[in-house]
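Weekly sync notes, structure subgroup
Attendees: PM, AL, DS (notes)

Item 1: joint prediction request from the bench team. They want all two components modeled as one assembly rather than separately. Inputs as received:
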Amino acid sequence: MLGAHNSFVLKGDIAFSEDLKNIKTIKDGYVVSLDGICMGAFDTLPKKYEELEVIDYKGSLIVPGMVDLHAHAPQYLCSGIATDNELLDWLNKYIFPEEAKYSDLEYAKKSYQNFANDMKRGFTTRASIFGTMHTDATILLMDLLEETGIVSYVGKVNMNRNSVDALTENSEDESLEETRRWLQSIEGKYTRTFPILTPRFIPSCSDGLMKGLGELSKEKGLRIQSHLSENVDEVKWVKELVPESTSYANAYELFNAIGEKTVPSIMAHCVYSDDEEIRIMKEHGTFIAHCADSNINLASGIAPIRRFLNEGLKVGIGSDVAAGSTLNMLRMILVTIQASKMYYRLVDSSLEPLTFEEAFYLATLGGGEYFGKVGTFKEGYAFDAVVISDENMAAKPDNVRQRLEKICYNDADAVILSKYVDGKNIFLRRET
Amino acid sequence: MLGAHNSFVLKGDIAFSEDLKNIKTIKDGYVVSLDGICMGAFDTLPKKYEELEVIDYKGSLIVPGMVDLHAHAPQYLCSGIATDNELLDWLNKYIFPEEAKYSDLEYAKKSYQNFANDMKRGFTTRASIFGTMHTDATILLMDLLEETGIVSYVGKVNMNRNSVDALTENSEDESLEETRRWLQSIEGKYTRTFPILTPRFIPSCSDGLMKGLGELSKEKGLRIQSHLSENVDEVKWVKELVPESTSYANAYELFNAIGEKTVPSIMAHCVYSDDEEIRIMKEHGTFIAHCADSNINLASGIAPIRRFLNEGLKVGIGSDVAAGSTLNMLRMILVTIQASKMYYRLVDSSLEPLTFEEAFYLATLGGGEYFGKVGTFKEGYAFDAVVISDENMAAKPDNVRQRLEKICYNDADAVILSKYVDGKNIFLRRET
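Output from the run, pasted for the record:
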């Protein structure tokens, strides 16, 4: 028999990125999962797959699962309610006090369950996520994410300075020891939830801690995620904290904490990344998590994504809740386009706005590459898919490409019917 | 018996603007409609209203209906699918050809029905709307809007130059005669749908046509809606077309087509309005329809709303579909805030971002003032209300004010249960 587990065909109106510039669409097409691997998308079902079960989603859109390269699970309650400050004040006023609550495992359990539920019912199939500095709460978060069926990197945060007392690790040693305890506790525990080293950002981590994490990354082949050049005051502060650095990215580089091509790091934001930072990120194969919604909400600015793409950097999209206001990746596509238009209009008219094709690519293949062959319906890619009904939309174009664009601008009318990760159905809308 | 028609009490979590800076909230409160007029919102129901039926929406949010000061009904199909050009190219490429189709009443009927349906099921209770140049299709639009129960101003568009042939009136006389035929045909026909004179914008109307519309406005006491200073190229063009004008607003002024305080006009956009335009709008009591979503989508720029508010100008919000991508007024509140943050960050850091309070005010009371005593739950205001369930929101704060903010950032989880205009229930969600 052809295929065993997770082998089937979805039928419907299919759309996926061929490359940065092109979206391929097939009306009433077929996309094939064989043992969780995509065998391609077709106008007519190839004979060799005729034995497989066909799940008919006629009239609905079928797109690759979306990838959220940057989100803070413990801040989720604060999303969309507390964006009246800029970064550093916002952290002190809202976020550090909220994250401090995660020393309480009961609180953590309830809050992380909300986060996991919304991840499960949303457009995201893969994500890279910050926990808090609390080892046990972070393990709880990983347990809950594993249950959702989503594939994720999750990090216990390291932070030993410049926070409130209740959210500061006592020493470099304690922070590193807790990190090792965390890694040991979860060894072999999960099939789709992976640890990632997570120094909060330079201002939160002493030189010795950053260096220790760099060594740990090397020792265990672990990836790193952090923040880079988000806010003007933050960038200035980093220069004061690491006076020998020639740029914020160089500060990570000095501590060997920015990864390498085979073990790539994720750096969120890069709003103020200059020539040197671009060079450093290119050299180290860094993935930029572009968080336009967050950067606007905290009035940080707008990252020059067109420039990064011209330079051949790797770019994905991060919701960055809770500075970002929602986990909804359709809205992230929209805000990414809108931010690029404002950058073009108000900052640099030589950098053309992103097209819909490009923003959709960033949300699927762009971030997907961080997870391997992920983010499109070409042969050999992981079978991650979301089936979306747009039947509530009254004024609906016929064209599949336009319908896809339209749901990004009107996400309240985009209803997820079903979601697959590695060919496994992890969400199915109940008919009410 | 107390009150007759449209007299009742809504119970739930109430929020409304007291003024530009303050939102009043009442958890488990009461808001009273007496003959369609709001009698106020209360912690406990006053004795004198105890006879009235109490409709219990415990746990749901109850807010004033929202006001959309600028939308193009015939463009609705194009919303969210065609924003890869700037204004003038976008009009020629997508919009004029689409509007030309409304000479066909069958097409108009189907399309306008979609628009009316979405208006009815959305957050909007009052609106000011553009039709096309076609008299009969515009009457059809008014018929359909009247049926929704929403209160609206609707305009047959005037345009006799600089469009495609199929969407150009043959002469000034024809345009003015058709306008009179339109006004005559609808005289006494509606109870909540009102005509408004609608010269498309200066580039579409010859001097004589603008002058004729100015005279008609005077003769019949009719209001005017149009566009002002949306796009750099447009502003330049207006200066060429009306060389004697000292500003775009002055061009309207020269033709007596910018209204007066007792018959105020709506001018959409005002992205590039300078000192002189501010003075002119103040003098004429003009309402600015701020269309942030549209202005970003077409890369027009961002209007300096903080400045307009500092100057005491009247400002409301317009969705401006189809350059705006949705009729969803919650998203318009969000984009209004986000646009103001980008203006602050990238254009002028002396103009502070709008607060949530201010943006909510603009979407309710700000635009509401155009319709009289509309847009809040104070005593004596029209009873326009929307009941919204946020129970799908997993990570939900307790605080009513924060819940209100959160649904604007996560509108896909804001489900309208019920909507009232002048105390009349015009939408009720069916339980499925």
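Discussion: Chain B touches chain A through 45 residues (CB under 8 Å).
Action: AL to compare against the crosslinking data before next sync.
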